[in-house]
């Protein structure tokens, strides 16, 4: 058995010299040291050795195994080193080559107008609040003074998921959730930007999905004049210091009194200034305050809501709301940062 082990060692080391790659090396390792390899086959015959021969042959077998292991490891390291050198040579980067000019991205016009409005209100001490787009009927309607049989629900043709769940039709539920979270504490001073959904036909001025930015202020002695001053500041920041607004009486179930707000604007090439409706607003209805934990005898508040698309169309001179969603690069490139 001694001679067979010595012969096996010499044979394995000799065969290693002809190995050309890692795959052949692994095959050779299995051939000699695998479960069915030649070394294992010889060692199975140790049961027939005498007690004196077993330790001697065992030690020799370990020496043969260690010698083959060392040779295999050396060849493996060489192959890895050669592969690394080959990859480095093939993947060399010529740092003297001129760089490729990459196109610069830009914020989408809707994101730009929303971020601009957020910064204006943050400057006035407001906080940004968000809420789920899938809402309960209670938060979307009932807590806003719109019970299940209220005719004003027809003004917002809704996407219902179940009898009690729907895609929110405005971001007003965020106001409700904020008031409930505050649990009667003041002041509340938030804006709620986000996507809303209504069953509507897509055309130049309508979409089934659009962005709304609503605001809510609650405290002591909050007046309609505070609301008007806030909205005037917003419009002048957006459209220029000479911009004016006017408020016309309107109706919303969750505010009383309520108003529509028009902003002064001048079409390109026109001599006279016109008016364009941009948002709805009003003083928070006492019933809405009461349902959300506020005593209407002590506290008052105002709320407003505007469409980001409408303001962006006015600010950037866009005549079709569908441009915002068609991903036409010719349109979007006009808003690329210089």
TrEMBL record:
<keyword id="KW-0648">Protein biosynthesis</keyword>
<keyword id="KW-0963">Cytoplasm</keyword>
<dbReference type="InterPro" id="IPR022911">
    <property type="entry name" value="Phe_tRNA_ligase_alpha1_bac"/>
</dbReference>
<keyword id="KW-0030">Aminoacyl-tRNA synthetase</keyword>
<dbReference type="Pfam" id="PF01409">
    <property type="entry name" value="tRNA-synt_2d"/>
</dbReference>
<keyword id="KW-0547">Nucleotide-binding</keyword>
<keyword id="KW-0436">Ligase</keyword>
<dbReference type="GO" id="GO:0016740">
    <property type="term" value="F:transferase activity"/>
</dbReference>
<dbReference type="InterPro" id="IPR045864">
    <property type="entry name" value="aa-tRNA-synth_II/BPL/LPL"/>
</dbReference>
<dbReference type="GO" id="GO:0005737">
    <property type="term" value="C:cytoplasm"/>
</dbReference>
<dbReference type="InterPro" id="IPR002319">
    <property type="entry name" value="Phenylalanyl-tRNA_Synthase"/>
</dbReference>
<feature type="binding site">
    <location>
        <position position="256"/>
    </location>
    <ligand>
        <name>Mg(2+)</name>
    </ligand>
</feature>
<keyword id="KW-0479">Metal-binding</keyword>
<protein>
    <recommendedName>
        <fullName>Phenylalanine--tRNA ligase alpha subunit</fullName>
        <ecNumber>6.1.1.20</ecNumber>
    </recommendedName>
</protein>
<feature type="domain" description="Aminoacyl-transfer RNA synthetases class-II family profile">
    <location>
        <begin position="111"/>
        <end position="314"/>
    </location>
</feature>
<dbReference type="InterPro" id="IPR006195">
    <property type="entry name" value="aa-tRNA-synth_II"/>
</dbReference>
<dbReference type="InterPro" id="IPR010978">
    <property type="entry name" value="tRNA-bd_arm"/>
</dbReference>
<dbReference type="GO" id="GO:0006432">
    <property type="term" value="P:phenylalanyl-tRNA aminoacylation"/>
</dbReference>
<dbReference type="InterPro" id="IPR004188">
    <property type="entry name" value="Phe-tRNA_ligase_II_N"/>
</dbReference>
<keyword id="KW-0460">Magnesium</keyword>
<dbReference type="GO" id="GO:0004826">
    <property type="term" value="F:phenylalanine-tRNA ligase activity"/>
</dbReference>
<dbReference type="GO" id="GO:0000287">
    <property type="term" value="F:magnesium ion binding"/>
</dbReference>
<dbReference type="InterPro" id="IPR004529">
    <property type="entry name" value="Phe-tRNA-synth_IIc_asu"/>
</dbReference>
<dbReference type="GO" id="GO:0140096">
    <property type="term" value="F:catalytic activity, acting on a protein"/>
</dbReference>
<comment type="subunit">
    <text>Tetramer of two alpha and two beta subunits.</text>
</comment>
<dbReference type="GO" id="GO:0000049">
    <property type="term" value="F:tRNA binding"/>
</dbReference>
<keyword id="KW-0067">ATP-binding</keyword>
<dbReference type="Pfam" id="PF02912">
    <property type="entry name" value="Phe_tRNA-synt_N"/>
</dbReference>
<dbReference type="GO" id="GO:0005524">
    <property type="term" value="F:ATP binding"/>
</dbReference>
<comment type="similarity">
    <text>Belongs to the class-II aminoacyl-tRNA synthetase family. Phe-tRNA synthetase alpha subunit type 1 subfamily.</text>
</comment>
